[in-house]
């Protein structure tokens, strides 16, 4: 494979770090006080799920998320932080990539009607899949430095 400027593995590391920064920005811009004290993000998602065209989304949200709004708010916010840090640092990278892919697919299904969000979630899911299958943790990562996932 020929590339410009960096090796293929280094470009994959750039992609991985960029995805991690995207997750960190998602975490950074959240109103933490609203999410944690009033569960505003979960309330918004409950409204979206309640109007969803697919019944399994409504029932799944009502069963798993709605009874635990504060816990789920913490899970969502800190999952985004953990994904971002894991990808930027390259620590437990395969776990972060699979977790991010699953979270983006959840967001994609929940917000199937919101085309503005769909592009972001689809792109992040695609980057996660490419980085996972190309083993983007081999370069510029703590995983590589300590010999994990070789």
UniProtKB/TrEMBL annotation:
<feature type="transmembrane region" description="Helical">
    <location>
        <begin position="95"/>
        <end position="115"/>
    </location>
</feature>
<keyword id="KW-1133">Transmembrane helix</keyword>
<keyword id="KW-0472">Membrane</keyword>
<feature type="transmembrane region" description="Helical">
    <location>
        <begin position="122"/>
        <end position="140"/>
    </location>
</feature>
<keyword id="KW-0812">Transmembrane</keyword>
<protein>
    <recommendedName>
        <fullName>DoxX family protein</fullName>
    </recommendedName>
</protein>
């Amino acid at each position: 494979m020929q590339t410009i400027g960096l090796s293929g593995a280094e470009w994959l590391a750039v992609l991985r770090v960029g995805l991690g920064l995207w997750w960190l920005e998602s975490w950074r811009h959240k109103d933490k006080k609203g999410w944690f004290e009033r569960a505003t993000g979960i309330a918004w998602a409950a409204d979206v799920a309640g109007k969803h065209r697919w019944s399994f989304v409504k029932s799944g949200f009502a069963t798993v998320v709605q009874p635990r709004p504060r816990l789920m708010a913490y899970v969502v916010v800190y999952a985004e932080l953990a994904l971002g840090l894991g990808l930027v640092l390259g620590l437990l990278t395969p776990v972060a990539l699979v977790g991010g892919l699953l979270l983006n697919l959840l967001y994609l299904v929940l917000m199937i009607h919101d085309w503005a969000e769909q592009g972001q979630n689809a792109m992040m899911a695609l980057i996660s899949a490419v980085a996972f299958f190309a083993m983007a943790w081999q370069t510029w990562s703590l995983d590589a430095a300590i010999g994990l996932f070789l």
